[in-house]
Amino acid sequence: MNKTFDNNFKNGCLTALGIPGISLAASFFALGALFKNTGLNATQSFLSTLIGFALPGQVVMAETLIVNGTLLNILIAVFLTNARLYPMTVNLVPVIRQKNRPRWHYYFLAHFIAVTSWVYMLSNYNKITKESRFSFFLGLGATLWILSTIATVVGFFAAGIISKKVFVAVIFLNPIYFMCMIVSVLNKPHIISTVLLSIIIAPILFLVTPDWSVVLAGVISGIISYFFFIR
Amino acid sequence: MSDTYIYIAIVITTFATYLPRFLGVFSSDFVNEKGKLFKLVSCISYGILAALIARIFIHPVGALEQTSTLIRLTVATLTIVVLFLTKKNVLFSSLFGVILFGILNLYYN
User: Is residue B50 located within the same domain as residue B83?
Assistant: First the structure.
């Protein structure tokens, strides 16, 4: 590893320790408490975030376990919930791609692609040189992952100690942060149009198909905006 | 529910989570940062994220489900106003939103 890589990696780590890390840790803290109420033990809670790092999918797993869902139910429900990671990854990799970097590096890095790291990187990549982006994202994603894993375990042990009202407010930090991040980067007509359309379509689609509403709303609004503003 | 069953569920969840990431890296070979396909994928990604956020605010699951929709939407609206008033200060606006939500949820829910 050279010095430039180290510095970019370090910058990514430091960025993650700010508001992105705090907001994500708050959500995983709540997830830890949910896991305890579901019947998981501390090791299982730790392992879930360590190897399956994507909060909505983990929530779906816990909820399916609560209602005694089958393993096939879990597979389908989690895959549908996390299908959003596909376009997000397709979108992110060209941004951080470097010539001569082995392909397996990207497959390894993919584990760290989640909403928080993705939103931050896509909002700020223009401020980072092309050669620095991979190491920066690795620092950012890995730190968020470690923080989330620790927060899950802390949340597991803190369940029942913290008042429910405070607990709910802590959970709310993550969606509020996502919303602020997305609104703050709305500067291109095709993205503004997509976001507005999606916000209108998603709740309507939810009434028809709750499982598919998020993916469908994103695809429909994205395609409409693309044809209207780009093509 | 046995421990083994939960461990298998965690492994299945991990597989179902990593699969779209794996396929995403695989497909990204065909996407150029300056190309039109990149913009289409950008639109879809932002659309999905916006839908996810809308869902959390309007039809949340888990602990947020027991909070008032009116409070969640009021806080979201006021937070956006604060975001623009503070020249897009994400940290300040996020903290404002969560504190306001905590207070409203404490007294009116």
Answer: yes
Binding-face residues of B in 80-99 toward A, CB within 8 A: 80, 83, 88, 90-91, 93-94, 97-99
Partners of A51 on chain B (C-beta within 8 Å) are 10-11, 14
Question: For residue B94, is it left (φ>0), alpha (ψ between -120 and 50) or beta?
Answer: alpha
**Does one domain contain both B61 and B38?**
yes
Burial class (CB in 10 A: 0-12, 13-18, 19+), A78: buried
Contacts of A61 in chain B (CB under 8 A): 9-10, 13
What digits encode the pLDDT tens for the residues B10-60? 999 999 999 999 999 999 988 888 888 889 999 999 999 999 899 989 988
Same domain, B58 and B96: yes
pLDDT of A1 reads 59
B92 and B67 co-located in one domain? yes
CA-based nearest distance A5→chain B, Å? 22
- The number of distinct structural domains making up chain B is 2
Is the pLDDT at A201 greater than 80? The verdict is yes
Mean pLDDT of chain B: 91
**Closest approach of chain B CAs to the CA of A157, in angstroms?**
17
Same domain, residue pair B54 and B97: yes
User: Same domain, yes or no, for B73 and B61?
Assistant: yes
ipTM of the complex: 0.88
Q: What is the span of the domain harbouring residue B103?
A: 34-108
Confirm if A156 and A42 have CB atoms less than 8 A apart.
yes
Q: Is A131 helix (H, G, I), strand (E, B) or coil?
A: helix
Sequence spans of domains, chain A: 3-185, 186-231
Interface of B with A in 33-52 (CB under 8 A): 33, 36, 38-52
- pLDDT beyond 80 at A5: no
Structure tokens at A144: 């968020």
Task: Say yes or no for a CB contact (<8 Å) between A115 and B101.
Answer: no
Interface test with B, best of A74, A91, A119 (most B CBs within 10 A): A91
Q: What's the farthest any 2 CA atoms get from each other in chain A? A: 55
Concatenating the DSSP letter of every residue in A60-89 gives: HHHHHHHTT--HHHHHHHHHHHHTTHHHHH
